[in-house]
Specification:
With 395 residues, the protein is α+β, with helices and mostly antiparallel strands. Helix content is 39%, strand content 11%. The chain contains 17 helices and eleven strands. The strands form four sheets. A five-stranded antiparallel beta sheet has the order 1-5-8-3-2, sandwiched between helices. A two-stranded parallel ribbon has the order 4-11. The chain has a two-stranded antiparallel sheet with strand order 6-7. Strand 6 and strand 7 form a beta hairpin. The radius of gyration is 24 Å and the shape is elongated. The relative contact order is 0.13.
């Protein structure tokens, strides 16, 4: 619900409908100066006019099944800020920089294969971190304009965060579908604050990617249809989060990624040399960022929550990460994992985990793995798991 507080003006306060035009420019400058103290690395201002230019693209993508399914389903809500805050006149966009390098990363070793979480899952869950900053920014505004109406959004809001950030001058939209800022590259989290206050808008960034196509060329699954357009369901970031079955051809591309994918950002020249360490709560814990796959597969619910619960990787629960860990063990052909995968195939109550274990054992190969599959063919009752065993035995 929108944040609303109605009090009389005084003590330097104004009312939203009666303040003179030059007040909003002065308040904007004050907010820009205050932003670093609120933990905000960049702040920009945009009009709350509808994003009519997005409508056709959003409808076309939905018709072609190119979206992830995590987006707001109502295209009109995605393009019209007034659908989220009646009387919206401005949008305040924020960016918060996060780290790109893992200090002293733990090493993998025989029998100790590790996975990797995307940088957006290092440190505190960015939804929590940004909401805290937007709440502080809201309080800053309400101290000065008590009758201001405000609505904050981080990632799961109706609006398209990238479009808001571009309009507000935070950065430009890269060919890799990331907002790339001149100051921080694309290693930034984005959020926005809708308001009924008429702040003067900023000018969009004119920089672009030029002729560079490194991100498009480097995508492991070929998920980019073209510059700035992604088939979300082929993106490894989506694959690590979905609870739907993953096609074998895409399993083969996932490597040891257990949550998210950074390839298209890592190769981007605009990110070269950047690593942001000035927000302590966003810094990674190495053993969480690169966890042992065997430990992830045997962790209990309590331990999982203790280790991953404060990160953005936990939002889909334990099972997708464990499935991804099994895929990683199979993809890396880790023979030391065969006993553990065999135990999962024998006793895990979740059919999709058993089904993935079949794929991994077949991928690893060898007499021990084959024996586990033969044993499971006699004992297994689930049709999908049996189908996977049959496919493995034919390969």
């Amino acid at each position: 619900m929108p944040i609303k507080e109605e009090t009389g003006a005084g003590n330097g306060q104004v009312q939203a409908e009666t303040a003179p035009p030059d007040y909003w420019l002065a308040l904007k400058k004050e907010m820009i100066s205050a932003a670093p103290g609120l933990g905000i690395d960049k702040i920009g201002f945009a009009s709350a006019d509808p994003f009519f230019e997005l409508k056709e693209t959003l409808v076309r993508r939905r018709a072609k099944d190119l979206d992830s399914g995590f987006e707001e389903p109502d295209a009109d809500k995605r393009i019209d800020p007034a659908r989220s805050l009646e009387g919206a006149r401005s949008i305040i966009a924020i960016a918060v920089a996060y780290p790109a390098k893992l200090p002293d990363p733990p090493r993998a070793a025989p029998g100790a294969t590790r996975g990797i979480l995307a940088r957006s899952a290092w440190g505190e869950d960015y939804h929590t971190a940004l909401r805290r900053r937007l709440a502080a920014l809201s309080a800053f505004i309400l101290e000065r304009v008590p009758d201001a109406r405000l609505e904050s959004m981080v990632d799961t809001g109706a609006l398209v965060d990238r479009a808001v950030a571009v309009r507000a001058g935070i950065g430009f939209s890269g060919k890799n579908c990331s907002v790339i800022t001149p100051e921080f590259g694309s290693w930034v989290y984005l959020g926005e604050l809708l308001t009924n206050l008429p702040f003067p808008p900023d000018t969009p960034v004119t920089e672009d990617c030029g002729d560079c196509t490194l991100c498009l060329d480097s995508c492991p699954t070929g998920a980019f249809i073209g510059p700035g357009e992604l088939d979300a369901k082929r993106c490894i970031s989506y694959l690590t989060q979905t609870k739907d079955p993953i096609p074998d051809e895409l399993k083969e591309k996932m490597g040891n990624r257990i949550y998210g994918c950074d390839t298209c950002q890592v190769v981007c020249p605009k990110n070269k040399g950047y690593n942001w360490t000035h927000h302590p709560e966003l810094q990674p814990e190495p053993e969480t960022a690169k966890p042992l796959l065997s430990e992830l597969l045997t962790v209990g619910n309590r331990e999982f929550k203790e280790k991953f619960g404060s990160t953005s990787a936990a939002w889909r629960g334990k099972k997708p990460l464990q499935r991804n860990a099994i895929i990683a063990l199979g993809r890396l052909k880790d023979k030391s994992a065969v006993p553990l995968l065999t135990e999962l195939l024998r006793g895990d109550p979740r059919p999709d985990i058993r089904e993935t274990a079949v794929w991994a054992l077949n991928r690893i190969g060898g007499e021990e793995a084959q024996a586990a599959l033969e044993e499971a063919a006699v004992r297994e009752k689930d049709a999908a798991v049996l189908a996977e065993i049959s496919k493995a035995r034919r390969s």
